[in-house]
């Protein structure tokens, strides 16, 4: 078993507190921009910290891979032939789409790849 990849140790610790028996953390990436604090991927689910609730409340949302309909790269401009040229992804779950903006394309690519492997 390999150690999880993470940006901030306090975010990793938060995710570790909610791990189920047999579950392993793959990565915990800090997110930038409004709303999302971090996105974690495990062998069972995606975990998103959402800071956009009224009254400075924060939600930790768990999304089992079986509930994810699609995962997308987001871009503000033409990719000019580069498929993995975005540092943002969107995860579509029924009537909700979660967006996450990362520091770097490599993190978005890693999350996209892991989710895609679990949903296809």
UniProtKB/TrEMBL annotation:
Domain of life: Bacteria
Pfam families named among the record's database cross-references: bPH_1 (PF08000)
Gene3D superfamilies, alphabetized: Bacterial Pleckstrin homology domain (2.30.29.50)
InterPro entries, per database record: PHb, PHb_sf
Residue span(s) of domain Bacterial Pleckstrin homology: 10-117
Signal peptide as annotated in the record: none
Protein name, entry field: PH domain-containing protein
